[in-house]
Amino acid sequence: MLASYTKIRSPYKNVYAYMGATVRYHIKNKMRKINSHSLSQYYHNTISYLNDAETIALGREIRDDYWQKYEPLHKEGYVRRFKETIGYHDEIASCSDMSNLDKIGPLQRLRFTDRFGVHSEIYRGRPEQSSGKGLIIIIHGRQSCPDYVMGLKKNYDPANQFGQRWMEHGYVVYAPQVDSLGRLGGFERLNYSGIGVDVARIIDLINHIDEIEDRNSPLIIAGFSYGAHIAEIVGILSRRVDAVLSIGGSSRGDFFERLSHRWYPACLQKKELNSFQSPAYQFYYNGSGIFKLLAPKPLVISVGTYDYGQEKYKHILETIEFYQKFGWKDRIRLNLFCGFHEVDVEGDYSALLELERNNVLEKVVLSRTREKAQDL
Fold this sequence. Notes:
The protein is of the alpha/beta class.
């Protein structure tokens, strides 16, 4: 029972067994000193150990050692472990289908069927000019939906009219539906997590977009809050994505920073501290880890200065230094705006324009199309 709660492992495959063994060794030695005959005292002692400063330091050491030998140009093994950590795989082929439902002004409302046979609604909006500057997929946050993104609801939403504004800037916008509240279930039988299912559905959509849109157009994936989490993951896994816009994603902070500063205690409840991230994800990828795995893909980090957690600045700087270390400083841009957990479209657009002015996106698209031609 103790091992099942404390072993550092993937929730879907045991890919970190050697790291789990290290943790169990330290726990075993610690528990030898505890002479408890009470079950409640046993759990109390376990929780005390998990929140002990030495334990937190041990966890941080294991995580830092994991990234010590990481090479972003040879990351296949890391990406494979990452897929297993988030509960995603490609063993079910993408066989998506999309059909028109109706037209709402400049928007098309589409019905999308993913690899699981699940139907959802997607909005596609075109700019007024005949040809767009590029394609952008916008993923909503929790307790939201594509209708808010495209400005079809009047109630307040932090990302309200987000998609409309990008259309005004000349982009073809896709606004898909994700299951941010975890209402769909049963995918564990297929070895997918809730996050893995959302990632799969977005990748299915990208594969479909690639069949009907200009493949030479830059494809940007943008997400707010929970949507930023999905956008970052899809940016890692999809070669078709040319750039990632993470809005509010860096406010997740760092698991060990927040444990050590007593933002919350580690506990033995089955519900994770952050219910849309697995324990293994929090252990290895929160903070700058996810952005290291995303590199060298062009990245815009957007976050309000009053958004959750002050350690976000530390990890943003770590990410910038990582990009600079490998000669990719022109591939990362920031939009730090005076705000809370919300969207700043104009600042995000300005940051993306810097990537365009430096011909970064053009070079990435050219490299991608050349690779595609070689594969064919």
